[in-house]
């Protein structure tokens, strides 16, 4: 294996043991030097679930919980689930299923409430929400922001972090302010698929060298992710599961030791309250 003397956390990836590589992807991650994972549920419709009510999301969440259990058997550290409703669902509900934006909003908020139940029970670590990254009508945009703010409400009530999928941006201060207005610290709002520079939430930086170098130079709290989608129909569409450990090796070679500690020990503790050192108990591959 690659010799990495540090915990290595991928802050956002998907595992689909039913259709994708599942545990083989976790084994790749471990062999490359990875130790900890935050596993995010796939979009519900990718798993064949056409939700009509909040409870319909439970089967989606249960699949993620099962994948996390499997990953925990393989990791020298730990995996945790992140559960929520993908913001792209609103387009599917309104365009393909003929719902009004307000109906779609209600259904997505119910799905988030179901996810929040798992956080409350200690079965999930964080929530996932956001808004479309593509152009939408004003009605869809407004409904999406209502859903996002609902997730922040739930996050504040449970004091749990919220991962967000949003448009590409280096300034999401407005969302950080929505969180703070509800009593959720802005650092607990995590922008997934972020670049190396971001004002407002904590960036979960997509693990490309130029973005990581930018985040490392900036010196502010950040996380690292692949957004591995584990979709057999789209091989190579995103970064693979070995990428975070490999980029950690590269950051260390470049002398960015502080940044590695930031992204894999300090920021995970600040944002999620997880101890990536204390949970590093198993044998490394
Ligand atoms: Zn994702």
Explain what you see.
The protein has a single domain, classed as TIM Barrel, CATH 3.20.20. The longest helix is centred in the middle third of the chain and has 21 residues, at 138-158. Helix 1 packs parallel to helix 2 (58-74). Helix 7 links the parallel strand 7 (202-206) and strand 8. The protein is an alpha/beta fold and 285 residues long. It has helices at 23-31, 58-74, 89-96, 101-120, 138-158, 173-182, 209-218, 243-253, 257-272, and strands at 9-13, 36-40, 79-84, 126-130, 162-165, 189-194, 202-206, 223-225. It has an eight-stranded parallel sheet with strand order 1-2-3-4-5-6-7-8. Bound molecules: zinc ion (ZN). Zinc ion is lined by residues 12, 14, 40, 227.
Strand content: 5-15%
Major sheet: 8 strands, parallel
What is the overall pLDDT average?
Answer: 95
Small molecules in complex? zinc ion
Class, according to the CATH hierarchy? Answer: Alpha Beta
**Oligomer category:** single chain
Question: What is this structure, in a nutshell?
Answer:
This protein has 285 residues and is an alpha/beta fold. It is built from 9 helices and 8 strands.
Task: Throw out a few tags for this protein.
alpha/beta; TIM Barrel; single chain; 8-stranded parallel beta sheet; binds zinc ion; 285 residues; globular; 9 helices
Secondary structure blueprint with pairings:
Blueprint: E1 9-13, H1 23-31, E2 36-40, H2 58-74, E3 79-84, H3 89-96, H4 101-120, E4 126-130, H5 138-158, E5 162-165, H6 173-182, E6 189-194, E7 202-206, H7 209-218, E8 223-225, H8 243-253, H9 257-272
Parallel strand pairs: 1-2, 2-3, 3-4, 4-5, 5-6, 6-7, 7-8
Helix pairs in contact: 1-2, 3-4, 4-5, 5-6
The structure holds zinc ion (ZN).
